Amino acid sequence: MLDVARKPGQPEQAPKVKDVLNFIDGHYLPARGGRTFDKRTPVDGALIAKVAEAAEADVDAAVKAARAALDGPWGKITPAERGDLLYAVANEINKRFDQFLEAEVADTGKPVSLASHLDIPRGAANFKVFADTVKNVSTEFFEMATPDGAGAINYAVRRPVGVVGVICPWNLPLLLMTWKVAPAMACGNTVVVKPSEETPQTATLLGDVMNAVGIPKGVYNVVHGFGPNSAGEFLTRHPGVNALTFTGETRTGAVIMKAAADGARPVSLEMGGKNPAIVFADCDFDAAIEGTMRSCFANAGQVCLGTERVYVERPIFEKFVAALKDKAEKLKLGVPEDKATTMGPLISLEHRNKVLSYYAKAVAEGATVVSGGGIPKMPDALKDGAWVQPTIWTGLADSAATVTEEIFGPCCHIAPFDTEDEVVKRANALDYGLAAAVWTTNLARAHRVSSRIEAGIVWVNSWFLRDLRTPFGGMKQSGIGREGGVHSLEFYTELKNVCIKL
Ligand SMILES: NC(=O)c1ccc[n+]([C@@H]2O[C@H](COP(=O)([O-])OP(=O)(O)OC[C@H]3O[C@@H](n4cnc5c(N)ncnc54)[C@H](O)[C@@H]3O)[C@@H](O)[C@H]2O)c1
Ligand SMILES: N/C(=C\C=C\C=O)C(=O)O
């Protein structure tokens, strides 16, 4: 297990500063020109890594290695053989569980209890679900009549799109990177991954796993850096990239879509959200509170599917606000290794400044601060960490920036509503449409409201319950495309029809 020598709140010996390298054609390499950037832990601001910032020539080498791998053994094996290799990747991640756990926690500061139950297990599970998908999926076949009476047959085959650029965010680093890499590889593609500059370690570790299980060199590549005028932009503009899959902010997605337009490359975009939770008076109250606590505050609110707008039917509004306040004030902010910790820091001081700017904006817009709203008192050893208080507001108009703009922190605004039509209209009022949670014990209402909500994913009496075979993605400004199960094949393969004259 992890070294838990550090007692909660006690200063840790200065961590060993790691060199995090690019992974190109099966080798760990420094950046050409030797550029690096610092990675600091958000727990206390200590420097934990010097990361190789890929030069444009490094990205070019990675794309060329990925292209070459397509023409090698990787391009000749069957889907079933690829599936077996991806299962081996999943098993090797599980064998190295603590190493991935330590790296993910170091980069993000998230509680060990969270990363060990979500991030790392899903990193392995993503490879298994898509290995199973490609092993079991069928295509289509049509017999047709022809004028000469001999007839013809048609069958469809799936072929890889080629080299896929994968650009990932920092909130669930291994989970969200493998959510794209696994289907891309399962479909026979090769990948060049650009992890977030905030969370470089687990994507880098995965390179060693690929080598260990025998994935051919060049199939999986990792280049580190930032967005504009760095590895992110170099990758999206590289003519050797056949498709781009992106997870991140909506405005970044739009920039990447523009870059992909050169050369008419397809994009899959998983973007921002401002997700509603709708709580009816007939709900299972304790379940609604527990579920809304998770959807608002899990991962310090840094989950795209998370709730930042809560609508509660008026008869239980006051009771709900009081209960959520009580639970939120029981969250334990602390070091990741402490089993008692239930909320970690935000990813960085920069992101904390963004979240705190909304905490201030909420007050300026006239919000009632039910709980939180600032920086918590932390032990001296942690004072340089990116800590914020879990925060609850009421009293704002639906038009307030706090209620319409994505904050991506541990905060939510709670508003009362009176009718189903009213709350559906309010929930659908934004340009986002990623996820929603509906809490009711009325079966007809559950189906009726879920059908009317404009979101790619609606949970009823649950949140973040994930069957990986289901379609996943956002509507409106929250995404383009659906991934998950067979839906991923639509993006990661070219479907070809072969017509044979008999
Ligand atoms: N819909 C989903 O499934 C989903 C999942 C997780 C996070 N998100 C969203 O991601 C955001 C938080 O993540 P973030 O802050 O890392 O997002 P971000 O858009 O700032 O960065 C995401 C990635 O894009 C890269 N990037 C930035 N500018 C680029 C450019 N011009 N060209 C190429 N690459 C570029 C970044 O380096 C990073 O790797 C939130 O908006 C959240 O809602 C969405
Ligand atoms: N894409 C997924 C989760 C996204 C979480 C956003 O922060 C998933 O569960 O597959």
TrEMBL record:
The active site is at 270. Signal peptide: none annotated. Its EC number is 1.2.1.85. It is an enzyme of class 1 (oxidoreductase). Residues 33-498 form the Aldehyde dehydrogenase domain. It comes from the Bacteria. Keywords: NAD, Oxidation, Oxidoreductase, Potassium. The keyword NAD applies. The keyword Oxidoreductase applies. InterPro entries: Ald_DH/histidinol_DH, Ald_DH_C, Ald_DH_CS_CYS, Ald_DH_CS_GLU, Ald_DH_N, Aldehyde_DH_dom, OHmuconic_semiald_DH. Gene3D superfamilies: Aldehyde Dehydrogenase, Chain A, domain 1, Aldehyde Dehydrogenase, Chain A, domain 2. GO terms for molecular function: oxidoreductase activity, acting on the aldehyde or oxo group of donors, NAD or NADP as acceptor. NCBIfam families: OH_muco_semi_DH (TIGR03216). Belongs to the aldehyde dehydrogenase family. This is 2-hydroxymuconic semialdehyde dehydrogenase. The lineage of its organism: Bacteria, Pseudomonadati, Pseudomonadota, Alphaproteobacteria, Hyphomicrobiales.
